[in-house]
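[stage:ingest] chain + small molecule (magnesium ion)
[stage:ingest] validated
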Amino acid sequence: MSCAIAITAPDRPATARSVARVTACALWGLETALVTVEVDVANGLPALVVVGLPDAAVQEARERVRAAVRNSGFEFPLRRVTVNLAPAERRKEGTGFELAIALGILRASGQLRVDVTALVVDHLEGRARAAPTPVPPRAAAPRHPVDLADIAGQETPKRALEIAAAGGHNVLFVGPPGTGKTMLARAFESILPPLDDSEALAASAVHSVAGLTDPRHPVLTARPFRAPHHTASHLSLVGGGSPPRPGEVSLAHYGCLFLDEVAEFSRSVLDTLREPLEEHSITISRAGGAATYPARFVLVAAMNPCPCGFWGDAERECTCLPEQIERYRGKLSGPLLDRIDLRVHVPRVPFGRLRDEGRESSADVRERVLAARERMRVRLAATSRRVNADLTIAEVKRFCAVDSETEGLLAEAVQARRLSARGYHRLLRVARTAADLAGCESVRAEDVAFALLLRSDP
Ligand SMILES: Nc1ncnc2c1ncn2[C@@H]1O[C@H](COP(=O)(O)OP(=O)(O)OP(=O)(O)O)[C@@H](O)[C@H]1O
Ligand SMILES: [Mg+2]
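[stage:predict] done
[stage:export] C-alpha cells:
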C-alpha cells in the first residue's frame, strides 16, 4: 500500500493541543483506498508515534519526515506528535504516507499558513500552482526480435501461433532441442494485434504499481511479453510479498506469458497458474486485506518431450527411462494441461528446408489475425468478451454449431481421446478461431479436424 496524493483539510489554529487531518490515497492491489492521516500535536515529551497498523517501512517514515520538515525550512515540533492512520484494520505499507504525515505535522503545528517557500506548501495554499504533469508521448512501437519468416519449416506450429494470437488460446510446443520452439514463441509478439487504449492503460497500471514503467514513456505501446526463468518462485510468478507486488502473470496482462522449458518449473509453481488461467485475475490474501491483480494473458509454453530431449526423434535415440519420462511430463498436471488449447509437436526440420525461400512474414499473418479479431469483435459486441478463447458455454453452443457429419467426427474424438467436457468446449473454440481466420461464418469439418490436430498429447 502506498500514498499517492495528499489533500489538507482545515482545522483549528495551533493551541496547546491541535489536530490535523490529511487524506491520503493508498493502493491495495490496483484499487485505490482513502486513508486518513490524523496528526495530533500535544504538550509532552518530544516524540513521534505512528499508530494504525503501519508496517516497518511506515514506522521508518518517522526519521525521514523529521529530516524533511527541518530541511524544508520548518520546525519540527518539540512536542508529542501522534499520527493515526485510519482505517485501523488495514495494514499500511510502504513509504507513500510520508508527504501526508509531514503536511499533517505542519498543519497541526500551525506552520502551513505562514509565508513559506517550499513549493508543495505553496501549491496547497494556492499561491503557486504546481504545473500539471503532461501526459508523455507513447514510445514508438518496438521492433520484434523474431519474424515468422526467420523460421524454416514448422508450418503447423506457425498455424498454431496464428490461432493463439487471433483467438487468445494457450499453446504448448513440444519437440527435440534446436527445432525452433523458443524462436516460435519469440515471434508471437510480432503477430499480436496492437493494444487498444483501455488495454494499454490497464497493462501500464500493473507495470506502474510494480515500479517497472519508464518515466519517459509510462504507457505501454506493445503487448507485454514476459518470460520468467524456470527457477522462478511462486511469489515472482503470481505475486505477493509485503508490500504486495504483482507477479509475472499480471505483468503479462493483455500480453503473453512465455514459459520456456516449462517442465523444469516446479510443479507447485505451475499449479498456481490455474487460478489466473481460469479467472483472468489473481487474488493475494494476506493479513490486513486481499489484493487482486488482473492476469489476462496468452500462455505460450515450450518443452522437450523427455529429459534428454529426443523421445520420438527420427534421428537420435532417447536415453531416458520410462519413469523419467513420466515424471518429466507429469510436471504439467492434467488440470493445467486441460487449460492449454493448442499442444503442438515441433519436429526436426530437414536440412534441405533450412534454406527455403518465400516464407510468409509476420506482417502477412498479422493481417489475418486482425481480420479474425474484427469478426470476433462484431460477433461479441453485445458481451464483455473479445476473443473466442473466452466464449461461455452458451456462446460455444450458439457460435460453434457444426453439421451432423462434423458432430460425428467430434463424438469419435471425444471418445478416443477421453476428452473432458472442458476439453470438448475448448476444441470447439479453437475450431471457431480457425474458421474466423479463414473468413467463414460457420465452423466447418476441416476447422474441427485442424483443432484436433493442434491438440496432440505431449
Ligand atoms: N526452424 C528453424 N528455422 C531457422 N532456424 C532455426 C530453426 N530451429 C532452430 N533454429 C536455429 O537454432 C537456434 C536454436 O533454436 P531454438 O532456441 O528456437 O530451439 P529450441 O527448439 O527452443 O531448442 P531447446 O529445446 O534446446 O530449447 C536458433 O537460434 C536458430 O538459429
Ligand atoms: Mg528453447
